[in-house]
């Protein structure tokens, strides 16, 4: 990426965590570059380098030397850590830069909702309201000893144990007379304390590659007290999983940093939820985290080298309970993080959570579940033989707006819907902002419309049927929004390269599903349900996805867009021991398919890059949306 | 302590952690003051302020403003944290200063040995040598799953669990083929791994107020692989417990600092022992720590305010297992620290360890055990009624050389023995160094000799029977060593105030023992054994101690000086589940006596300040040293 400043006529700037890319002339400031990219960056002092608010961090690439105002506003430590003022720092080479949330106005849309019925509660954790006996004048057993006596009296004898941090909490509370409190228990383990009659609360976390979604749940009623999400800060170290794994492999410092930022993010999502719901974080006594295998390894700082090559052996694949405190999560002293089991390779705990959330293992008809992301996980369940096939295909970041010339994530100004009226395309943007780029669902819509309107042929070539299809710097391109109508005064285009990215992505998903059907010996019309999970999946236009062949056309299937299914599964396992046991049996009964071992896979994959996929029925047939999930 | 520099003609300087005190004229540098105090301080550059090696930390009091060379050698952070160069910083008021170990030549003698038979092993921890099955090409269960399968095959099914750090260790080892390793287990908990056929090792720690002693033990053979000790670094924050508790009470930062320094010290003692014995610290899978109640509360960072006033309620008094990692101890990932139970108030886990070590709870004759320190713990066991009375008396630091004009701890040059020949006293010093002060055993010997030779009367007054008894700056004093013969060129004196300190200390111990005998209804001649534990106790001249009335004269008792009994108890509990269970039953069966509630205590205490204690037999009778312990 490092080009010398003397020879380049433009530099590529990538703004993280939104993933917005822009090519600008060297010597531009980062603030100017950000604005060129259509980002709404705030600069309190108007960009004259005195307020010091526009701090950004250079992740990769070279900038000019810091000048006087940066030396004034930033410490030596800041500067040597790559912190710069966006309004002063000038670009020298291609750079990747992290923009803190507070500095960027308008936030990225992060899907946290998923469809589900009321949660069935059967939690690990007990809560008890008790009054601690006061010490007698003569004999004064310790605080913990008096508590253990009272608990044994009420619950029968157990081997009571507590971490020092829980004992500290008790000992401070015990100085009050009378001392009435709520105690949280897991068997004989005393997890922590709260004021009298406070609830036991848990946090379910869907740790995604792109976003982290958190849910605050009352463990005994199942009531959701709050939900929220933030971008996964690891994005700053790599947009896709492989890049992050390679980054973490550089050394223990890098691996530790990757673990730390994601732990801090989980902590901060949870603490924000607590604040909003007026819950003391020490009332959070249980957590459940799901994510794919690589994300869980990075979270727990496990070795990852073996995840980068076949046979992709995980360090662990069973469920696991980890002390929240050892991960730096500051909740009840004894709070634990339950991690759902995974199936193997990249088919992880989030996939098991999706199966759990939508009862895929209990269906009466064949069902396909997919969670589209940089990697797309697919499950096919066939109830007669209780056959559950699972696989993961590398679908790349195109459906998240990545690797697309004017792609971006679903933030303000992202084109998310494309409609055609008599061959003319019109657009809907996130938050109705001025268009600045295309997010995943917009990309799918656009490709579908380009194909439907004949601007793209069945091999994916852009055709000059229209003055908007033109020769650009990088070959053929379609002019989506001219500079005069865009939010940043530059053309928004969709290039021939972008079409290819989409072809590779959609073919991977399609071929994954088709291969599993073939392996199971099922015909497409035998499938009763297709469940599309994930943020992208819920904003996706199903017609468009089926038309371009990202999803197969299943004649008898109900299509359901269920939103964040992994998050729902995490919530179910958070509040229920039975759900945890079921997740264990799902993982134990699942078969992982390595598609590269399937002899027909490459043939199917090649065919699936076409529009429409050969052998597929025509786009005119309607697909059935599902009524229920 | 803060006097204004204008009015003082001398300032008191206390060097920590050795506890050496010296009065010097203001404006002296700390280096000069240290040398005046007889400390061997190294100054690489000869004290001209350029090498920056003589860094010390000002704990209390005021120094002059740092000059050019200190600004050159020290960072702003250093200076604002109170770091100075000893060769440049000049004294303005009374100061307390911490001298890092590397800067002081010659180390303090730290008692770590205690008498005991071979350890009976029955450890918590299992070790197994196994070969991890390699993953098959088609199915590739995770590393932990393959290990759990192999363990279940060999040991029967258990609920196998491991911390992420242990999984990480396994996963790195699992990349080798064949993968043969030693696994450490505690029930179903997988604690960690080592190379094939390596031992399971543990560390026993006696966490004393003054010193920290550590023992590296093979858990299955009981073989001691090493022993070592260092000064408790908390000394820098207070010589006695109460001062430390008050310091820790100032805020959470102070409490955290007190916990951190002692945790780091334990970690470093252990790692040093591992290095010397060629043991990988990850082979350390279990620890056992004993200490008094306050020390354990400081270690675990528990609330301590309630320990400062009656009824002295501890936060915990049962035994406890704490994750070593959560204390920052870097051994096997799953290593735990077992903490022995305590009896209540200041009668702590170290006292229980002493009872355990010397089978005090199993004796056939009445027995007294004492561990002399700033607080002295006393146990009296009467086998017929299985009566075990325990108490703690505040004996102060005089017997450790504290609060004594020329007192010091047992470091090179400390007078540790005083003999009399025809009324003339002669001295033996630690390491035969030039005399610079008196350590505890020297203080006791000196007082005994002063009394025997008529220089001190029965009320403790120094009498002018000798030209060496003279009027000093602080009243009467005895010239122990004239300046011409001392290691620092100044007189070593023993003041009237020093005699009083000893009177208070010895009276507290004597009155504690006498009160317990009275409460138990036992006569002195019914006691079969007197066990004197602790560093001071083992260097003590028993005749001197009995003569001055620090210990009672028990006509039929064997006197045993057993060394570090608490350390021995910690070792026994480290390697044996049975010993841990016995410690639990000792604590459960013990009665704590609050001496201030005993109506005769103050009367006994007042009488016990005399030489000899009234009612006691004359010094000429010989006491019986014990043959066995």
Structural summary, described in words:
- The structure is a homodimer of 629-residue chains.
- The first copy, chain A, is α/β, with parallel strands linked by helices.
- The first copy, chain A, has 16 helices and 28 strands.
- Chain A has a seven-stranded mixed β-sheet with strand order 27-18-17-16-25-26-28, with helices on both faces.
- In chain A, helix 9 crosses helix 14, helix 10 (440-452) packs across helix 13 and helix 11 (496-520) runs antiparallel to helix 16 (601-608).
- Chains A and B meet through helix 4, strand 7, helix 5 and strand 14 of A and helix 4, strand 7, helix 5 and strand 14 of B.
What are the main properties of this structure?
homodimer, 629 residues, alpha/beta, Ubiquitin-like (UB roll), Nucleotidyltransferase, domain 5, 5 domains, seven-stranded mixed beta sheet, six-stranded mixed beta sheet, 16 helices, 28 strands, 28% helix, globular
